[in-house]
Amino acid sequence: MATLEEVDSTVDAFQLDRAFPLFIKPPELTTGEVMEVSGGQIDIAPTILDLLGDSLLNDTSNLTVFRTGAFRYENHYYEPDLTERARNGTCYSIETEEQVAFDRCAPYIDHAASQLRLSDTIIEKDALSQMSP
Fold first, then answer.
1. How many Å from the N-terminal Cα to the C-terminal Cα in the chain?
2. pTM (2 d.p.)
3. How far apart are CA 21 and CA 106, in angstroms?
4. Quick one: DSSP state of residue 96?
């Protein structure tokens, strides 16, 4: 598939591997909206809350974290080096697909790790089943 899609860089591979649409439509919705933002499983809860009227989802930049610890924030993609200690990895520009200074991604690494820990806790403790409707 990578050959067919002409994957020439790490950013190309990231975008191809993690890009898929998410459609959520409550029964009474008559119009739709397309949001051209990056999202992840962690973003589904704010989307559902938004549909219920408690908006947490807006057009502001969001941190989209992936299971590997990789993340996208605004126009940057961070790919951790999983063979090294934490906080080692490479920061890329989505626009240029080139490596950029690590400090462009560094401020978000701890927040990404925190989101993964929260997600793990929800899964391990079966927290969703304990929430009241």
1. 42
2. 0.57
3. 28
4. T
